[in-house]
């Protein structure tokens, strides 16, 4: 492994608690001899990832961008894993640099006695310091595998292989002290400017006969910027939702329909009431193959960038 320059390890969660020695000394003890002197620890936050918000993640992103401007050649972000897929995805949408950012986390409480967290840190630092990781955008490292932020999902909360990329798999892996990249992931074009995403973008999942009371409340909420619908199948929703959606659209709230299926896609296959086709005719935007969590973040970024409906639609499908 040929290091690409200084590496920053950003502590964005409670990871420090697992170190008996000082964080800097402990991290250096994990690393190959050639890499250890190049790593700096930046303590940013110790709060659980479930306490994070879009705005807090944007603040973290602003700090990560400043590290690149300060000359760091790679960054590892160590945090909790509850919302890591969302933190990584939002960072990826606004990461225009070739330098890699690798998110990783410690083991869950169910595996507290394992050394998985330290292994994740070691492998993430090796990846962030490796030239093959440049240009891949934001990555998530778990158990030696690297996943693209645009593809990764947390699939387990209590055992190994927390993260996977359904339908695609990892983009690479760390073996001993080397990084091997198998493919280049497809990711949306990152916005070069640091956009402050819209704050009030909500997400409503379709369920068997459910959701109308929540949607009725949202339709009366002042200040709502956008709404993502996690629809059935190819983007269909319950018929009682329609009057409330029409109210939101009349108020110029951006509404996007997605599929709640893990690997779904919105399609205009049907012409019955509350089908995706009818939603499009009302003015609902097409979320394509974005997962609902991804669509929420992309819509928030697009709204924060001041995109009009046509630009938003292109951005969601881009």
For the structure shown, list the relevant keywords:
318 residues, alpha/beta, eight-stranded mixed sheet, four-stranded parallel sheet, 14 strands
Summarize the structure.
With 318 residues, the protein is α/β, with parallel strands linked by helices. The protein is built from nine helices and 14 strands.
| Cα shape | elongated
Distance between the termini: 35 Å
Spell out the helices and strands N to C.
EHEHEHEHEEEEEEEHEHEHEHH
Count the strands?
Answer: 14
The fraction of residues in strands falls at 15-25%
Oligomer: single chain
Largest sheet: 8 strands, mixed
Average the pLDDT over all residues and give the rounded result: 91
Q: Return Rg in Å.
A: 21 Å
Helix content: 25-40%
Task: Give start-end ranges of low-pLDDT stretches.
Answer: none
Provide a count of the helices: 9
Secondary structure category = alpha/beta
Task: Record the strand order, biggest sheet.
Answer: 2-1-3-4-5-6-9-10
Structural account:
This protein has 318 residues and is an alpha/beta fold. Helices cover 29% and strands 19% of the residues. It has nine helices and 14 strands. The strands form three sheets. Strands 2-1-3-4-5-6-9-10 form an eight-stranded mixed beta sheet, sandwiched between helices. It has a four-stranded parallel beta sheet with strand order 11-12-13-14, with helices on both faces. A two-stranded antiparallel sheet has the order 7-8. Strand 5 and strand 6 (145-148) form a beta hairpin. Helix 5 packs parallel to helix 6. The two termini are 35 Å apart.
